TrEMBL record:
Belongs to the IF-3 family. One of its GO terms (molecular function) is translation initiation factor activity. Monomer. It is found in: Cytoplasm. Pfam families: IF3_C, IF3_N. This is Translation initiation factor IF-3.
């Protein structure tokens, strides 16, 4: 392939080769099966392009349309699809095994805000040094956290100890 030449996504007009018949669709066209030459002539008469839409169909499907307009529509659809996809944001909230009530409430308020924005929350208790002996306290703290948020979040994963951290994953409840 020569450098600088862009490969077209669809075969158009004279590039549609190796076919005898095609199914033709489009505006101002009687849908039906035509010979390839007849389909090209029909497109030419309307100053439009014959675009191969579905090459694997039997017979292949071609549409009579302005190709540049068709490409623009395809790009527009792709942009819309990309815009509709949501990116999952994961927010982390860190506790110590001895977190007091005020800090707990403060972090709870932040978690509510994150969940309200549609983000997932990863809450964890980080055990430093000898605090690892308070595993139960960390688990109870995370369960209390999940229970306080049960109106706005659902638990994705219950508290689980991995190394020096105990994790709890929450995701926002779907609004009805």
């Amino acid at each position: 392939m020569p450098r600088g030449k862009v490969e077209e996504a669809h075969r158009i007009n004279q590039r549609i080769t190796g076919l005898r018949e095609v199914r033709v669709v489009g505006e101002n066209v009687e849908p039906g099966v035509y010979s390839i030459d007849q389909a090209r002539r029909m497109a030419q008469e309307q100053n439009l392009d014959l675009v191969e839409i579905s090459p694997k169909a039997d017979p292949p499907v071609c549409r009579i349309i302005d190709y540049s307009k068709f490409k623009y529509e395809q790009k527009k659809k792709q942009r819309e699809m990309k815009a509709k996809t949501t990116k999952v944001v994961m927010k982390e909230i860190r506790f110590g095994p001895n977190t007091d009530d005020h800090d707990f409430e403060f972090k709870l308020k932040h978690a509510r805000q994150f969940l309200g924005e549609g983000a997932k929350v990863k809450a964890y208790v980080h055990f430093v040094g000898r605090t690892i002996v308070f595993k139960e306290r960390g688990e109870m703290l995370l369960l209390k956290f999940a229970q306080a948020l049960e109106d706005v979040a659902k638990v994705e994963q219950l508290p689980k100890l991995e190394g020096k951290r105990m994790f709890l994953f929450l995701s926002p409840k779907v609004k009805k």
